[in-house]
Amino acid sequence: MNALKIGIAGLGTVGIGVVKIISQHSDLLEKRCGRKIEICAINAKSRKKDRGIDLSPYHWVNDCKDFVNIDELDVVVELIGGSEGVAKELVKESLLKGKHVVTANKALMAHHGVELAAIAEERGVSLRYEAAVAGGIPVIKAIDEGFAANDINAVYGILNGTCNYILTEMRETGRDFSDVLKDAQNLGYAEADPTFDVEGVDAAHKLAILSGLSFGVKPDFEKLSISGISSVTSDDIKFAGELGYKIKLLGITRCSDKGIEQSVEPCLVPKNSAIASVEGVFNAVYVDGDFVDKGLLVGRGAGEGPTASSVVADIIDIARGFNKPTFGVPIKSLKDALWVNGDDIIACNYLRFVVIDQSGVIADVAAILKKYDISVESFIQRGRDPGQPVSIVMTTHEAKQGDLKKAVKEISQIKEVKETPHVIRIEHL
Ligand SMILES: NC(=O)c1ccc[n+]([C@@H]2O[C@H](COP(=O)([O-])OP(=O)(O)OC[C@H]3O[C@@H](n4cnc5c(N)ncnc54)[C@H](OP(=O)(O)O)[C@@H]3O)[C@@H](O)[C@H]2O)c1
C-alpha cells in the first residue's frame, strides 16, 4: 500500500514531538498501519530557529497555506494554534481540497468545529482532534468508540494541568495563588500570560468539545459559564480540607430532562473520591454512562510526548483507513442543544464570609439564606476575636445557583461583611 503522506504546520512543542515519534517509530507505525507514514512537508514561522532536531530530511514549505497545493499530501497536521487566522484558514482550505486534517487546536474546534466538520463530511475526509482535549489521554476515542454503546449522563474533567498543579501546590504548601503561579511559570507549567489557563478558558474550550461529542449536539462555547481559580485562596483550601474536600477546577457537562448544563469552575470534591487523587499537572476525565456506569481516565494533559502521541494516534487511524463523523454523528443529526442557564443549575455550595466578629451578624446572614430557601448543612467559625474580621464558613444543601447568587449579593451588603464572599460549588462525585 502507498505511504500516507503528511505535512506538518507548526514545529513548536507538539509539532517537534510528532516529527520525533514518526521518525523514531517508523517501523512500528508501518507494522501497525500496514503502510508507511511519511512526512513530506514541514512549516513553521521561522525557518532559522534551532528546534533541537535535524529537520534537513524534510521538505520545508515557506507558507503553510501552500500545503493545499501539494497534490501528494494526504493529511495536513495543524499544530500552530489559535481559533482564527492562519490555523483556521489552513484547516478549512485543506478540508475543502479533500485532505484529511489532524489538529491539537481546542480553541479552533470549540469555536469553529461544526463549520469545519460539515466541510470534512461533505468532502468525505477526516477531521481528527484527539490531542485537543486532555493531551495524552485518549478521551475522544474513549467517548466516541469505547463508550459508544452508552447514553452518556455526564462528563467531568480536570482539563487544565496548570490549574491542577497550582491548586495542588497551594494545598500542599499553604502558599497563595500568585506565589505558586510564579513558580509554575518558572517551571514552564504556566505561560507568561497565564490568563487562558487560570481563568478557565482553556478548560472551557475542551469542555465545549466534550459536550458536543458526548451528547451529539453542536458544541457551543458561548453557552458555557466559566470561572477560573484566581479567586481561590489558601484559606478556602484549608477550610475545604477541614470539611473533607479538595478544590479542583472542574469542567462539568451533564444532561438531564431540563437540557445540558456545562460549566468550568473550581469545585469542592470529596477527598476520598477518585478524581481528588489526581494531582499536579495530571488531567482526568470522568465519564458516566447508563450501562458502563462510571469510568475515570487519568494521564498527562500536555507536554511534547503525550500530546504528540495523541496526534500520531489520529494519523494512524487515517493510515488504517478509519473515517468517522467529527462529533460522533453525521452533521445533520448534530442537534442544537437546549442549554441549561447557569442560574438554573442546582448544586450544594461552600460559602466563606469574612465578617466583623460581633453579635447578630451570623443571624443576619442566616436570615438572608433562609429568605432564598437555602439551608445550611455545616458551619465553622474558628475562635473569637471581638471587633475584628473573622472567617465564617458554611456548606449548603442543594439550591438553585441563581438564588444563591442573589442571597450572596444581599449578604455582601451587610455592613459587617468585609471582602467579597467566597462561593465554591460542591460536587459529590
Ligand atoms: N503544548 C501542549 O502541551 C499542548 C497540549 C495540547 C494541545 N496543544 C495545542 O497544540 C497546538 C500547538 O501547541 P504548541 O504548544 O506546540 O505551540 P508552540 O510551541 O507555540 O508552537 C507553535 C508553532 O506554530 C508556529 N507558527 C506560529 N505562527 C505561524 C504561522 N503564521 N505560520 C506557520 N507557523 C506558525 C510556530 O513557529 P515558530 O516556531 O517558528 O515560532 C511554532 O512552531 C495548539 O493548538 C495548542 O493549543 C498543545
CATH class of the largest domain: Alpha Beta
Mean pLDDT reading: 96
Shape: elongated
Q: Spans of 5+ residues with little confidence (pLDDT < 50)? A: none
Indicate the structural class.
alpha/beta
How many strands in all? 16
The named CATH superfamily of the largest domain: Dihydrodipicolinate Reductase, domain 2
The Cα radius of gyration reads: 24 Å
Biggest pleated sheet: 11 strands, mixed
CATH-derived topology of the largest domain: Dihydrodipicolinate Reductase, domain 2
Architecture (CATH level 2) name of the largest domain: 2-Layer Sandwich
What small molecules are bound in this structure?
NADP nicotinamide-adenine-dinucleotide phosphate
In DSSP terms (H or I, runs of 4 or more residues), the helix count works out at: 13
Describe this entry's structure for a reader.
This protein is of the alpha/beta class and 429 residues long. The protein has three domains: 4-132, Rossmann fold (3-Layer(aba) Sandwich); 139-300, Dihydrodipicolinate Reductase, domain 2; 346-426, ACT domain (Alpha-Beta Plaits, 2-Layer Sandwich), CATH 3.30.70. 34% of the residues lie in helices and 25% in strands. The protein has 13 helices and 16 strands. It has helices spanning 13-24, 26-33, 85-96, 106-123, 139-146, 161-173, 177-186, 195-198, 201-215, 234-242, 304-319, 361-371, 401-412; strands spanning 4-9, 37-43, 75-78, 100-103, 127-128, 152-158, 225-226, 245-256, 259-270, 282-289, 293-300, 346-356, 376-381, 389-396, 399-400, 417-426. Strands 6, 7, 8, 9, 10, 11, 12, 13, 14, 15 and 16 form an eleven-stranded mixed sheet that branches. A five-stranded parallel sheet has the order 2-1-3-4-5, with helices on both faces. The longest helix has 18 residues, at 106-123. It is elongated. The model has no long low-confidence stretch (mean pLDDT 96). The structure holds NADP nicotinamide-adenine-dinucleotide phosphate (NAP). NADP nicotinamide-adenine-dinucleotide phosphate binds next to helix 1.
